[in-house]
Structure formats: structure tokens, C-alpha cells
Amino acid sequence: CHADAMASQVVGFVGPPGWSDPSPSEFETVFGVTGIGATLDLGDFDWKLDRIGATEPLLADAAMELVARGASAIGIVGTPFGWVGLGHGDSPHCRNARIASECGVPVVSAVSGMLDWLGDLGARKVALAATYYDPDWCERWERHIAAQGFDVTTCSSMADLGIVDGPLEATDETYWAPTPEQIERCVRGVLLDDPAEAVVVSGAGARTLACHERLCAIAGVPVVSSDLGLYRALRGTMHSTPEPAATARAAQPRADRAVR
To answer: Which of 73, 97, 113, 142 could tie 155 with a disulfide, CB 3.0–4.6 Å?
Structure first.
């Protein structure tokens, strides 16, 4: 009975434009739940945050397309697509709820998953490892996290930390897929000057599934990442999912992963 229920579930991923999103196949491999994807078609997209902030109607259209293809839950992949353009006092969960009311199934985003994960950990003092974000993205990301009630110790990109040559530009694809070593160095770097209760790794291209346990060991505190935050949130919407592979244990809600 449970096996039949799991086999019948389909999760839809709304991916950023111009990017080959690994989330559908990765989620299917880890959880045994079929993943399907839809990519936002934004034409000549410049990756400016103000333009991202105007995409909520397009996110809803993509979600409805995925539901028509059989999706029973929707995940919004690109971190800024979950929060940019929200009004004062609005939260990523509000955007999810609006889209869910249009498509008729649960909707989560990478950023709402990350916030929920931090809430489960009880972490309030956080360091932001902003990987390939440019200065404008870093500044506005830090402001958004602070507006959600967190004490942000630092927000630094790989360029800020001297890991790659800077300054970074949002349109530069060179660093959109940082290596595990670069992510590790970024995590170390944001903890150098001020301790934190958790490190937040943003950037959908910063894939942490295979290196998450090492990141936590390096940091000495929990590491909350965009990709695993989304998976964790999606798993919470499912009626019954199989136990994940050992390499994906961090994607589960973990009551025993206490803040240190």
C-alpha cells in the first residue's frame, strides 16, 4: 500500500531560465519519487533582482503546467525566485500560498525550506555563504534574512573571500556551479571573524547533497543549503516517502541535529 502510494507521487520543480536543473533527477534518485521539471522562459533574461521579483505570475503558470502533467507538489528551485519582490512584512511562505491557491497543490521554495530548517534548529545567529552572488544580490539577501528575524553575522561571496577573482556579476555563468572545495572554503570563510549558530549556503548551483556532512564537520555548526532546504521542504509535503540514501540524510528533518 505504501509502495503504491509512493510510486504514484510526482514532484514538480520550477527551474530558473537558462539552466539545466539537476533537481528532478536528483530528488528521484534519493527519494524514489518521480521528479519532473519546467523551466521559466523569460527570453533575454538579465538576472537583475528587480526582474526576478516580477516573475510570480510566471511561477504560478509553470506550477499549473506541472500540475497538469501530474505533479502533486511543487518546488521553486532558484533561491531569489522565492523571495525577491516581496512586500514589507511579506514572507516566502506567503508567495508559496498564493501560487498554491492557483495551482491547487502544496508549493514550497528553496528559501522557505531554508527558513523552516533554521526554525527547526532554533538558530537565530547565522552566517551567509553567498557563493556566486554579486554585491547587489549579497546586500539584498542579507537584508531579507535580517527582516525575517535573524541576526546575520556576515554575508560573503566567493569573491569577497578571495576564493575566485571578483567582482562577480549576476550574468557571469563562470561560477554558477562552484566545486565542493569552493563551497567548503566559503563556509570556512564566513565563520572566520564571528561565530554563528548555523551557516546558510545560498545558490541553487551550489550543490551540497554529496558534501553536506563534510560541510557540517568543517563548520562545527549546522549548514543549511538551498538544494537540501528545498528537498527537505518537499519531503514534508509528501504523504509517504522512502528512507533516503545515506548521503541525503541531511534532507530529512533531524530532531537530533542540535545547534552547537
So the answer is: 142
